Amino acid sequence: MTAVRLTEGVDLVNTENIGMTTNDVSPTEAGLKVIITDKLARQENESVFSMVGQQMGQAMGRLMERDAIALFTALSGGAHYGATGEPFNLTNLGACIANARAAKFGSKLVIIHHPNAIYAVVSAALVAAAPSWSGGPLSGFSEALLKDFYAFSISGVPVFQTAEIDEVSGQDYGTGAIFDPTAALGMLTSKGLSSATQRDESLRATEVISVADYIAFELDDARGAGLDYDVDAPSTTAG
């Protein structure tokens, strides 16, 4: 919307269009089943049901996360920042933030990318900061990097990592995103994650079933953009 200056005694006649659109989405079921035999339950010292329940919850969490990540490529009509094979560094990171703010993505920006891409940012910053290490405590961004390594904020934008971002097949980059999580993407849940057990006497076993009914969807295409940067694994032997 656009605000205008007014003149005393003159009626305000301009009106603004709120630009509202609606999204029609339908949650879908997702879940998994594990069969725990009586013999397995008797042989284990630890609670098999607790261990299996934890793993099932983690599996459902990964599925929901990957559903959200799959939406990154379509943000801003598929126009991405970065490029195939481009390393993620402080310069590129800062440019992404500047472009996102210039495009008015929103006031609550976040960045999400693969751990290897985030490592590239951290590694470059640590190399740049190395000469000052002998001079006493580091401050500002370098201090935050040394303290948290992967979890940090820059220019007020928190940066997160997830290994659920895949490398594009046959290429050396993955697609993360910069977006306003309150406006760009949504997650509609009609039924939260629930678990139930069912006894199968003839099998001498118990079925454990976890189910959720949800859908991840794009809320406002113009409030985010994909980030294409190198996600190759860093060397663990470079000295």
Structure report:
By secondary structure, this protein is an alpha+beta fold. It has one domain. It is 27% helix and 28% strand. The chain contains five helices and nine strands, in the order βααβαβααββββββ. The chain has helices spanning 38-43, 48-69, 90-102, 115-129, 140-148, and strands at 28-37, 81-82, 110-113, 152-154, 157-161, 173-179, 185-200, 205-218, 224-230. Strands 2-9-6-3-5-4 form a six-stranded mixed beta sheet. The longest helix is centred in the first third of the chain and has 22 residues, at 48-69. The chain is flat and about 85 Å long. It starts with 27 loop residues before the first strand and ends in a 9-residue tail after the last strand. The model is unreliable at 129-139 (pLDDT under 50).
Q: Give the class from helix and strand content and strand pairing.
A: alpha+beta
Helices and strands, in order, run as EHHEHEHHEEEEEE
Tell me roughly what share of residues is in helical segments: 25-40%
What characteristic shape results from the CA principal axes?
flat
Approximate strand percentage: 25-35%
Low-confidence stretches: 129-139
Largest sheet: 6 strands, mixed
Keywords:
239 residues; alpha+beta; six-stranded mixed sheet; 5 helices
List the helices and strands and how they pair.
Blueprint: E1 28-37, H1 38-43, H2 48-69, E2 81-82, H3 90-102, E3 110-113, H4 115-129, H5 140-148, E4 152-154, E5 157-161, E6 173-179, E7 185-200, E8 205-218, E9 224-230
Write a short abstract of this structure.
The protein has 239 residues and is of the alpha+beta class. It is built from five helices and nine strands. The strands form two sheets. Strands 2-9-6-3-5-4 form a six-stranded mixed beta sheet.
